Amino acid sequence: MHRNKHWRAAVFEKQNIQETISKLNSDTVKGLTEGEAFRRLRQNGRNEMRAARKKTKIQLFLEQLKDPLIYILLIAAVVSILLGEVSDALIIGTVVLVNALVGMLQEGKARKALEALRKLTTPRTIVIRDGIRREIPAAELVTGDLVELEAGARVPADIRLTRSANLQVEESALTGESVPVEKDALFLADCRQEIPLTERGNMVYMSTVVTNGHGEGLVVATGMDTEIGRIASMITDTEDEMTPLQKRLGDLGKLLSILSLGLCAGLFLLAVFQHRNIPEMLLVAISLAVAAVPEGLPAVVTICLALSVTRMVKVHTIIRRLPSVETLGAVSVVCSDKTGTLTQNRLTVEKCWWYDVMEDVTGTGGRGEHRILPELLRGMLLCNDASLRGEQRIGDPTELALLDFGAKYGLQRERLERQYPRFDEIPFDSERKMMTTCHRLPGGRSGRGIAYTKGAPDVILQHCTHILQEGRSIPMTSAQRKRIGEAVERMNSLSLRTLAAAQSEDCRGGEEGMTFLGIVGMRDPARPEAGEAVEIFRHAGVTTVMITGDHVDTAYAIARQLGIAGHRSQCITGRELERLDDTSFLKRIKDLRVYARVTPAQKVRIVKGLQLNGEIVAMTGDGVNDAPSLKAADIGVAMGTGVDVAKQAADMILADDNFATIEKAIEEGRGVYENIRKSVIFLLSSNLGELMTMFVAVAMGLASPLKSSHILWINLITDSLPALALGVDKNDSKSLMRCPPRKASESLFARGGIACTLFYGALITVIGLAAFLVLPCGILAAEGELVGNPFTWVERLRELMSREQILAKSQTYAFTVLGMCQLYHAIGMRDVQKSVFAMSPRDNLLMVAACIIGFILQFAVTEIPFLIRAFGTSHLSGQEWLLLSVLAAFPLFAHEVIVLFTKN
Ligand code: ATP
Predict the structure, then answer these.
(1) Is the pLDDT of residue 53 over 80?
(2) Which chain regions cross the lipid bilayer (predicted)?
(3) pLDDT at position 247 over 80
């Protein structure tokens, strides 16, 4: 069955359009009926690549065990069994199991979130069914569907073209060749021989990209039956990308592991040297290694990033690559286009000019129909690809505004086009800033037809030699040229976006020697929330730059209104930019805020220039030619309404096209980074505290303050939840957006991070040792022996500690205090600059839950008999609990004192 379908898809290039229609049982005017499309969809399935094989739960679980830490733990378990400490081995086994299960669940959750996101970014396509043009998800296409293709679109299925105009397609996804190839619906392959894919001029294939022109065609294959579907490599699982932070933390983890293993080995040798019990010391050394390895680090980062990506969907942002969340927080310049992002993209034609009348276009209809130049109206409507059908508005907002303009004067594009059928076109291109369509004249008069061109007035004017005056095309005088310039200027000064139209009675003349018809001025109001976002960016040290294809006056008017630029000297046009060499451009770049009439190629130059100046650049774009600048930027931002090519090149997509959403995304990026930083510092300082407590005690010749099962309990059970709670903490958005962006290369330990880690590490060490030594020291003090030569009383300490009961109690103290003090430490870490009394627990309910669970678990290991037996702890009295709780709270006391003294 499949083979048969492939054979069919492969021969369509040899069949003429009529044969194709009958084979597919479709229609090149009306397409399929909805009912038939539905039936075919049910029969043949959705137009999707079969999803990569998902990992099973068992695979995910086993993956969690592939970790050096787990190997160390397993060695610890074996040594424990050899020493007869079976309960220790059981605890280690349980912890390994719980840890792997939790890891599996978390990873599964993160994967699900990302998968849901991937679904959100699936492309849509324009299809004609029942004679009506509509936009549907590409996955719902069926064979026989009549599909429209336009520049920038990803080809949604394998398609036999039925109509084409200057159609060019880039087929690198299929052939690796990135030079676009021309396509022509009229091409017909020789029936007698097989031709390679690249030469099938009348076929376009799924996943290739339309770079130019227009086309229409019938779907001949969908989903796995397409050419790309047959390429096996497309369906193999692609490895998940690691983010830079994950990589850095992975490296840090490895370094710490090596260091700690070295330390443990050193300690072990010391023990051998001191003639201590070797198997016991081996267990201590392993416990130390367990204490030192920051096991939770990479997991915390992945979970924080994945959760943040899910949160961003709520603010209309779709992140396509996980690392972008990190980069977002470091963005220092946001380059935005104007139309639709900074403005509302609800364009309305307000003024209209032709020689030599300026006319207001207001109200809703009919008024002064006779007064608008008919040729101008006709040009604006015929040279137009948008369509308007009740609520369904398909096409570019500029062109839709022109259709509304026509409707006010009782003109409809479709009806007009039936009178003047289009037979050729040169599509709009933001590089050329104009477009042309050629039409036959009414009444079937054959011959030369008429061409209409519309575009930026300055560009159109360069191509005109004549002007229409009183219905006649006469050579344009320089005075008339000047008048046109003045009219454009007047409209621009009123913040109107201008568009001119021209006609040529000879379609063979290209776009030269045309007759100027007139100009329309459209209003596109600024988005009020964009102004607020610019203001927030200013406080956050992020510069906003406007890059637009529009006229400099219109651009400046909007930029001033939004607070992007305050002076005209901050504006530059594409032409001026071209004249600047790199050195002078880099000198001026700091002051420039508005780039007008720039070409997409210049956008790349601007991004690179800013990057050379040390900036981290976010850049928006929506057109075909924006892809290179989106790729060049640190964060490429495509519009939800943009073309597929732009979306594919971008790191993030703004579902609502709104500039203010970028501000929300940057805030989220900064918040996530801050949270990861807090988590990492918390985990490392806690581990350092445990490690040093153990190291100092053992170096003093004492027993180990914690057993390996204790360390595991603290690290993997009471530590992981607070670390996660810090990772999802709600940051104060105002303070986040009040400081300048961090440098991209900045380490997690910059800005006091290293001091914080060392300080709390040292404090936890002191607290841990105090808890461990308080009992024997108390006995020595009572006996009056805690004086004189430290060597003598340390010797006495060793003696006391060798008594099983005292050691068990001291270890219980150390275990309880170290467990609890990390919970207090986590609370303070939420904001190192804020008193705990100023933080709202409601902002982080997970932290509240983590602390409650942590305290209960810590309580359980000294109060529940079977846990007491398993962990070798002893029961604690109320008084002891009180003493240990106060001791454990020292990190929080220290936090409050620091806040008090650092407050300005
Ligand atoms: P931005 O770059 O901020 O989105 P823009 O829409 O003005 O602004 P482009 O799309 O590059 O940028 O358009 C450049 C110019 O081309 C516009 O200022 C306008 O004069 C002209 N133009 C825009 N759309 C069309 C169109 N559909 N047909 C003809 N000319 C157009």
Answers:
(1) no
(2) 65-83, 89-105, 255-275, 281-307, 680-704, 710-728, 748-781, 845-861, 881-901
(3) no
How many Å lie between the centroid of ligand 1 and the Cα of residue 430?
6
* d(C-alpha 457, C-alpha 499), whole Å: 6
Nearest CA to ligand 1 atom 14: 549
- Among 665, 688, 705, identify where a domain stops: 665
- Cβ contact 393:436 at 8 Å: no
Per the model's pLDDT, the better-predicted residue between 453 and 116 turns out to be 453
Beta strands in 370-513 (DSSP E): 387-389, 392-394, 422-429, 434-439, 450-455, 464-469, 472-475, 497-504
CATH of residue 626's domain is 3.40.50.1000
- Residue 354 forms beta bridges with which residues? 357
Query: What lines the ligand 1 site, CB under 6 Å?
Result: 337-339, 396, 398-399, 428, 430, 433-435, 454-456, 499, 548-550
Measured distance CA(59)–CA(505) in Å, rounded: 70
Token pair of 175, please?
A: 């052939």
| Structural domain contains residue 113 | no
Q: Which atom of ligand 1 is nearest to the CA of 459?
A: 20
The total number of structural domains that make up the chain: 4
Is this prediction's pTM over 0.85? no
User: CA 861, CA 841: separation in Å to the nearest integer?
Assistant: 27
What is the whole-number distance in angstroms between the Cα of residue 550 and the centre of ligand 1?
6
Give the domain extent around 176. 9-52+122-235
Of 88, 337, 553, 831, catalytic: 337
Type of residue numbered 658: N
What does the H/E/C string look like for 800-832?
Answer: HHCCHHHHHHHHHHHHHHHHHHHHHHHHHHCCC
Instruction: For residue 50, name the pLDDT band (cuts at 50, 70, 90).
Output: low
Distance CA(350)–CA(360), nearest Å, equals 6
- Do the Cβ atoms of 146 and 26 come closer than 8 Å? yes
Q: pLDDT by residue (tens digit) across 296-313?
A: 666 777 778 878 888 888
CATH for 225: 2.70.150.10
Q: What is the mean pLDDT of residues 446-464?
A: 89
337 carries an active-site annotation: yes
- Residue 786, pLDDT score: 67
Say if residue 195 is in the same domain as residue 131. Answer: yes
**Residue 374 above 50 pLDDT?**
yes
Do 474 and 412 belong to one domain?
yes
